[in-house]
């Protein structure tokens, strides 16, 4: 399966710049996700790959085939790109059986009847729908229809699979199931896949790598672990998972730590941020699951920061409790498995769980 290379992709609609020169490479056989808030340009990127939009700058190439190159004026028509496409609305033809829906793209490609049957059986087998080949779309559930849409996109062995929020019409439980079989299927077929979603859990669960987008720019590309554990910017940290942001000033640089004086009160040792100088204004990001409340009393002080805290509110949310605490001048969110935090007069945070960034407007982060 080929690589997809996007280089300097630009797109404007009217006076608005939607893509600011995006560059990325999707590797052979990779499950690659474009993740970001609504309107950041994910679908526009995918549509440029599909040939449904013409970019205003940059190029897109798959293996040795140029799909589009603004500099030379090259543009390959969508139907010549041999792509598998699945969108949010599955758009199966209602008057055709499932097998008929899958046969259609093969007929267009002039595949012989016997071979059509083999390919259709294989594709339906892949998605566990072979036994329903004679049914019509209205006789299937939403989840089953989505499987058929995927089988139809795979039946003619496309070079790349493009999926735009394909699971968003399914209810929560079906979505979980669909996620599991989609990941299995993609690995089994080994097809290079670009997936668009604004759902962070979906992105983390499915992807080999994720590109986090905002306002037509790419903020970070990395594996799910890299994106979650070492977000490149506070915006990435804010968009994925639950994160606290604490304002402060660099107080001291030691061999191993950067010590931050928090606004209000308290000091926080963080993993050393080599770029920071004493006196710099910084934003420290800490995931809410890394703010320990119930273990605070037991945490050895050399391995943890200990900060005075006041519990403002606690809520039971099923598998855990969520707490709002006042720490210095900030409100901090924390999680615990035990309800027993009423006495907590401090929180414990490991230095390596504190991520330091140049000072960022906290109001902007709230809007991510
Ligand atoms: N054909 C168009 N004409 C004008 N503006 C458009 C067009 N298509 C998209 N846009 C605008 O471009 C921006 C990016 O849209 P896009 O669909 O790429 O975002 P997205 O990240 O996929 O968001 P969502 O998750 O909501 O689909 C939006 O502000 C949208 O309104």
From TrEMBL:
Gene3D superfamilies xrefs: 2.40.50.100, P-loop containing nucleotide triphosphate hydrolases
Key word Cell membrane present: yes
Question: SUPFAM superfamilies from the entry?
Answer: MOP-like, P-loop containing nucleoside triphosphate hydrolases
Keywords on record: ATP-binding, Cell inner membrane, Cell membrane, Membrane, Nucleotide-binding, Translocase, Transport
**InterPro entries linked to this entry:** AAA+_ATPase, ABC_SmlMolc_Importer, ABC_transporter-like_ATP-bd, ABC_transporter-like_CS, Mo/tungstate-bd_C_term_dom, P-loop_NTPase
Record-level Gene Ontology MF annotations = ATP binding
> Pfam family of this protein, just one?
ABC_tran
| ABC transporter domain boundaries | 4-240
Q: What is this protein called?
A: ABC transporter ATP-binding protein
Per the UniProt entry, what species is this protein from, by scientific name? Nocardiopsis mangrovi
């Amino acid at each position: 399966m080929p690589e997809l290379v996007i280089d300097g992709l630009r797109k404007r609609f009217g006076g608005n710049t939607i893509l600011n020169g995006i560059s990325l490479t999707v590797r052979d056989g990779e499950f690659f996700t474009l993740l970001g808030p609504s309107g950041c340009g994910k679908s526009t990127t995918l549509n440029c790959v599909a040939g449904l939009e013409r970019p205003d700058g940059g190029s897109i190439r798959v293996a040795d085939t140029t799909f589009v190159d603004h500099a030379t004026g090259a543009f390959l028509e969508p139907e010549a790109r041999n792509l598998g496409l699945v969108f949010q609305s599955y758009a199966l033809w209602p008057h055709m059986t499932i097998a008929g829906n899958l046969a259609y793209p093969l007929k267009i490609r002039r595949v012989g009847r016997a071979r059509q049957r083999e390919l259709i059986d294989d594709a339906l087998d892949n998605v566990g729908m072979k036994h329903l080949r004679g049914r019509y779309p209205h006789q299937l559930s939403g989840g089953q229809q989505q499987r058929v849409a995927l089988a139809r996109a795979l039946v003619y062995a496309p070079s790349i699979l493009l999926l735009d929020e394909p699971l968003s019409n399914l209810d929560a439980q079906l979505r979980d199931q669909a996620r599991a079989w989609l990941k299995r299927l993609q690995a089994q077929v080994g097809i290079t896949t670009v997936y668009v979603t604004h759902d962070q859990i979906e992105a983390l669960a499915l992807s080999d790598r994720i590109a986090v987008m905002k306002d037509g720019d790419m903020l970070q590309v990395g594996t799910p672990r890299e994106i979650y554990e070492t977000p490149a910017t506070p915006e990435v940290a804010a968009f994925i998972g639950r994160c606290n942001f604490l304002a402060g000033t660099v107080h001291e640089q030691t061999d191993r730590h950067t010590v931050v004086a928090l606004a209000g009160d308290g000091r926080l040792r963080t993993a050393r941020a080599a770029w920071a100088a004493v006196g710099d204004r910084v934003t420290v990001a800490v995931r809410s699951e890394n703010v320990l409340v119930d273990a605070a009393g037991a945490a050895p002080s050399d391995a943890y920061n200990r900060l005075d805290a006041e519990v403002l509110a606690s809520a039971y949310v099923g598998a855990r409790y969520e707490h709002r605490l006042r720490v210095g001048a900030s409100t901090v969110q924390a999680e615990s498995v035990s309800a027993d935090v009423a006495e907590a007069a401090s929180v414990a945070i490991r230095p390596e769980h504190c991520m330091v960034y140049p000072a960022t407007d906290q109001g902007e982060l709230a809007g991510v």
